[in-house]
Amino acid sequence: MIENNICLLTDSYKVTHHSFYPKNTEKIYSYLESRVGSEFNKTIFYGLQYIIKKYLKGEVVTQEKVNQANNLIEAHIGKDIFNYDDWMYIANELDGKLPIEIKAVNEGTPIEVGNVLMTVENTDKQCYWLPNYLESLLLQVWYPSTVATLSAEVRKLCNFYLQVTESSKENLDFMLHDFGYRGATSTESAKLCGSAHLLSFKGTDTIPALTIPENYYNDNNIYGFSVQATEHSVMTSLGEKGEIKQTINVIENAKDGVLSIVIDSYNYREFLKQASKKGNELNDKVNEFLEKTKGNKVVFRPDSGEPVSTTLDCLNILGEGFGTTETSNGYKIFAKNIGLLWGDGLNYHKIRDILFGMKSNGWAAQNIIFGMGGGLHSSITRDTQRNAFKCSAQLRNGTWYDIFKNPLDSSKKSKTGRFKLIKESNHFKTVTIANENKDYLKTVFKNGELIRQENFQDIKNRTLTYTRKR
To answer: What CATH number did the domain enclosing 123 receive?
Structure first.
């Protein structure tokens, strides 16, 4: 069976809809938005170019794919259900290229929720049913967009606490590290999610994400970086009594740079006391590593416990052993080039709680970095930013008709008509197509061709501009 058969990349019920639209329907116009009530008040749009290049661009419909889809749908739903003739029309008369036009905002742009992000309409009246047939695939842009939004909001949060504690921003690019590959639903989702994270941060352990800029966004630069780090299989190799000996072995074999050490294999308090107390062999080795070159740093990673209290406990033990200095407004900073990494069970709210707890207890934000796995890759859903794809206009017999839904749950009321996305007073606003202001929705894809190519660095720059705003 052919993979990525565009005729089958939809929900089952959509296969039946070509028979249900009113007679003489010529065009269907649909749009994507993040509804009001989303977790964050802006959505950073990202991932459309990936979807287009991987699934929509070029001659994607062939006779073989149509016949395969027809056989599958006949067994799956019933005879004479699949739209065989129109798919064959695309394969034969349109050279296998999809007759649709997609308009969208520039990727990486933060858009206030409640506004249109993308529109889709068919360009051939025989294929009026196609825009919403593609909804299931196109709406998957919710995932990289939501991850991009989440990472950007975490960066804004970190930036805020660095400012209020008068911390150095030297490590802001690395304050949130992507730990999520193992918890992702697939390698494809890990790549997409990981690349979305790289719009705001540089720290990642999701190596597949590094291939997205070059393969899909015309940019062969490397945007993600990592460090030497241990895991429990390393730290427990010599058992509990041999933990310190094994840690010394790790330090002696580490290369210059940053070294991250997981510390909760047994008792993180006792480990930190030995690591930070003068006169202990482990403390001597840590200091030897730190003094070997100016760029060397040791990061200690507790991997269990209640996040706020455990973080504060670790900071206090390390501060007592290694010493601290203070910022001009009195927040403590480690005197040595060490740090703390919290990476267990994090989400936006827990990161906020940890940073607030640190500030409240006199610790500067620059002492900590975070690692997020499931919270970044798999704890979000389409409802996080309330993404929805809806039809808002239909053309029949040469006349456009406005289409909308207005259920008792008014938060799900859909937009009506055809749209432009304009800017007023530096805020985006969705208006009717008749409005004369500049439209920020630009044609990205039309009749099988990618019209506008985006560069990853340009997308990243738009995102970073947003994260610098208060």
So the answer is: 3.20.140.10
